[in-house]
Design brief:
- The relative contact order is 0.09.
- This protein folds into two domains: 2-64, no CATH class; 69-103, no CATH class.
- Helix 3 crosses helix 4.
- By secondary structure, the chain is an all-alpha fold.
- It has helices at 2-19, 27-40, 45-52, 57-64, 69-84, 89-93.
- It is flat, with a radius of gyration of 18 Å.
Length: 111
């Protein structure tokens, strides 16, 4: 089984990652992506833990799941609207901290 996984990685995943400009991709990369997509779709963290088969939820929370830019913008938007009301607008709320921009998989329009 391990040889099949290695062949699939070398023949398909790595070339696809290089072609996409993101470097070598492996099966573990897909687990991290899956976890982050579950988070983006607001799947309950305990469900994420079960799907990823983690014994300890801290593994799911601290290693696999990352905050997604859309979620960061939405959280910021709520605070801005709470403080500034309608005057805050979407421009201030749409700002995403610089450290999270490298995580973005694809650009998403500011809403």
């Amino acid at each position: 089984m391990e040889a099949v996984q290695s062949d699939a990685r070398e023949q398909h995943l790595v070339p696809a990652g290089i072609a996409a400009g993101i470097g070598g991709v492996g099966l573990h990369t897909l687990r991290h992506t899956y976890s982050s997509l579950l988070r983006e779709h607001e799947v309950d963290i305990k469900v994420q833990q079960a799907l990823l088969r983690h014994a300890d939820i801290r593994t799911t929370m601290n290693i696999y799941t990352q905050a997604v830019p859309r979620a960061l913008r939405e959280a910021n938007r709520k605070v801005v609207k709470n403080i500034l009301g309608k005057q805050g607008g979407n421009e201030a709320a749409a700002r995403v901290p610089e450290a999270t921009k490298s995580f973005q998989i694809s650009p998403s329009p500011a809403t």
